[in-house]
Design a protein that fits this description.
By secondary structure, the chain is an alpha/beta fold. It is about 30% helix and about 25% strand.
Length: about 220
């Protein structure tokens, strides 16, 4: 049986993050289903849940129901993720939490990449130039019958000095410190595609194993 997965997201960086790990597991990994004209089929989903998991499940279900209309008897699954950010040194009220790009909460306008860089470099500068933080991820896979959940944390170290050019989709890679060599600070955005995979594989390979296991046992 083919192991077909769709990961519908407007964030190309989020999609690319898992591509190499899924390929290793021979998972047919797609971003969107396309129509007869080659146009991506997208679904407007209001991500107004109170938790990461609620948002991820809602998006997965709505996309599955739409794609099932086009794929008929084809076996496929939808995966979605949502993430939250917590930075050491900020009060509970100041934490980005679920609203990493919506600085005023769910009803706020979604910030551009440049606005995100400016916002978080300013925050980190006030915290002394560097700050520990953690991402909390919630992934959901839905196969039309069951939801499968996986949640994990990724600790990071942020800098107030960004490296350019901006990483499309995951702009905070430009302030995420990977290592320091001599007097040079190496950001996640500075790494090659292969180096970035090696750095993130302890997370992304685990996710691929989780998804592959559920697909095999469908």
């Amino acid at each position: 049986m083919k192991k077909i997965v769709f990961f519908p997201t407007n964030n190309i960086g989020k999609y690319d993050r898992y591509k190499k790990s899924f390929k290793k597991k021979n998972i047919i990994y797609n971003r969107y289903l396309t129509d007869e004209n080659g146009i991506d089929i997208k679904v407007e989903v209001s991500e107004d849940g109170k938790t990461l998991n609620e948002n991820a499940k809602k998006k997965a279900k709505q996309y599955y129901d739409e794609y099932k209309k086009h794929l008929n008897d084809t076996n496929f699954s939808i995966i979605t993720t949502d993430e939250a950010l917590y930075i050491d040194g900020l009060t509970e009220k100041e934490q980005p939490g679920l609203f990493v790009r919506r600085f005023g909460g769910i009803d706020a306008k979604r910030a551009t990449d440049e606005e995100v860089v400016q916002k978080y470099t300013s925050v980190i500068k006030k915290l002394g130039g560097e700050a520990k933080a953690k991402w909390i991820y919630s992934l959901v896979m839905y196969d039309g019958k069951n939801f499968y959940d996986y949640t994990w944390e990724e600790p990071v170290l942020f800098s107030s000095i960004p490296h350019y050019p901006i990483t499309k989709g995951y702009v905070l890679n430009n302030i995420t410190i990977v290592k320091k060599v001599d007097n040079n600070t190496i950001m996640l955005s500075d790494l090659t595609e292969e180096e970035r995979y090696e750095y993130l594989s302890k997370y992304t390979d685990t996710i691929a194993d989780f998804i592959n296991d559920k697909l095999i046992n469908q």
